[in-house]
Amino acid sequence: MSLSExxxxxxxxxxxxxxxxxxxxxxxxxLRDKKISPINKLHTENKKxxxxxxxxxxxxxxxxxxxxx
Length: 69
Hints:
The protein is α+β, with helices and mostly antiparallel strands.
């Protein structure tokens, strides 16, 4: 697992939202990627997950900026 995947999982953990992360195949690029889909009832109406929104929620919960050392 790469560092970016670990950081994303960490952010998802702190966001207190439940997400399903699974591997998916991108036919255009021919690469495997992670697909993140929400499990929460409020977020299941075929909405895309906004990573920036997750980061902002995680920052609010943690009370600090993740981009700072």
